[in-house]
Design a protein that fits this description.
Elements (H helix, E strand, L loop, with lengths): L17 H10 L1 H12 L7 E2 L2 H12 L5 H15 L3 E2 L1 H16 L14 E6 L6 H14 L4 E4 L6 H14 L2 E3 L7 H14 L4 E4 L9 H17 L6 E7 L4 H14 L3 E5 L10 H7 L4 E5 L7 E3 L2 H8 L1
Helix pairs in contact: 1-12, 3-4, 4-5, 5-12, 6-7, 8-9
The structure holds guanosine-5'-triphosphate (GTP) and magnesium ion.
The site of guanosine-5'-triphosphate has 22 residues, from helix 6.
Length: about 325
């Protein structure tokens, strides 16, 4: 599925290809296993009476996916409202929870902002090792394949191997990249990336940044500087500041989201490594607590392992 409408792309109303749903199911297997195995344990083949002890157990099991108290309470209350006092089958409860999850995750647009004229500049930020560089490669690959001219900016000049890592990805994707010498000012690399994207009429520039903690004031100021310099080159840039969160961090991802979204002016979230996490439920509090749409989810280490976030397929893949 292309993330932007390209000339070659199928219309929006086309259902996502089954391969994407299949990949999502595979990617969410760990979380689904915890949820389903746990909830399945509550049932016998003839069904189970929905009473207070059942609802309490259900709540405890939902919490284990790191969805947090709020969403688990909503899901439990919904099950209580529909089934209390009845003997029900596992499938009925799972369907109810899945629908409710979809509802809770709806209401935000996952569309990538596209600059009306000139290149769209996307800045990618997050803590160390959250999956920034890999997510950039996946995003660039998708945009490139949908016919966009993509320029990468190796703005992580802090770690020697980082430039090389992104250069290798650029080679595999077949897109261009702007790099700087080791220890160069990341803002100068970002500046040159935006400049070249504008001069050479690229459709999109995606700029990598070094991992940082939201508490490292000087590094957060450096992000500010990057934002300012690209804004001077391209009107309205950066058009997207995507925060990459590591889904295996569970509830910790929430505090990262809080810190970054306040300081870095984030416009959306990429939730990476969902495939390696049994804590995929964390997407619920992330969705509810921040005014930041989850735009993409990472489902593996390969170039095809990034999916636009879609509440319906996500909820379906989860149960
Ligand atoms: N399973 C899985 N692994 C991922 C995913 N995204 C990234 N990774 C892996 O996570 C590790 C870190 O990814 P990077 O993309 O280098 O993370 P980063 O945020 O750029 O790291 P720094 O630049 O060091 O801050 C790598 O081994 C990636 O292959 C994902 O969606 N699923
Ligand atoms: Mg990196």
């Amino acid at each position: 599925m292309a993330f932007w409408k390209g000339k070659s792309q199928a219309p929006d109303e086309d259902p996502p290809p089954t391969s994407l749903l299949a990949r999502m199911r595979t990617g969410l297997r760990k979380t689904r296993d915890v949820l389903n195995t746990d909830i399945r344990d509550l049932f016998k083949s003839e069904g189970r009476l929905v009473d207070d002890p059942f609802l309490e157990e259900l709540f405890a099991r939902l919490i284990r996916t790191d969805m947090g108290v709020g969403p688990a309470t909503t899901l439990r209350d919904q099950v209580a409202e529909e089934f209390r006092g009845r003997v029900v089958k596992l499938e009925e409860v799972l369907t109810n929870i899945s629908r409710q999850t979809e509802k809770m995750l709806s209401g935000q647009s996952n569309a990538l902002f596209e600059a009306p004229s000139g290149p769209t500049v996307i800045l990618v930020v997050g803590v160390n090792g959250s999956g920034k560089t890999t997510s950039i490669a996946k995003l660039a690959n998708n945009l490139h394949r949908s016919g966009k001219r993509v320029l990468l900016g190796a703005g992580d000049t802090f770690r020697a191997a980082a430039v090389e890592q992104l250069t290798v990805w650029a080679g595999r994707i077949g897109c261009e990249i702007v790099t700087g010498p080791p220890d160069a000012d990341p803002a100068s690399v970002a500046f040159r990336t935006a400049q070249r994207a504008a001069d050479e009429k690229f459709d999109v520039a995606v700029i990598d940044t070094a991992g940082r903690l939201q508490t490292q004031t000087h590094l957060m100021q450096q992000l500010d500087k990057i934002r300012r310099v690209v804004g001077k080159q391209v009107e309205g840039a950066p058009h997207e500041v995507l925060l990459v969160l590591d889904a295996t961090a569970g509830q910790n991802a929430i505090s990262q989201a809080r810190g970054f979204s306040e300081v870095a002016g984030c416009t959306g979230i990429i939730l990476a490594k969902l495939d390696g996490s049994a804590k995929g439920g964390v997407i619920l509090p992330i969705h509810q607590q921040f005014d930041l749409p989850v735009k993409f989810i990472g489902l593996g280490e390969g170039l095809d392992d990034l999916a636009p976030f879609d509440p319906k397929s996500f909820a379906e893949a989860l149960f």
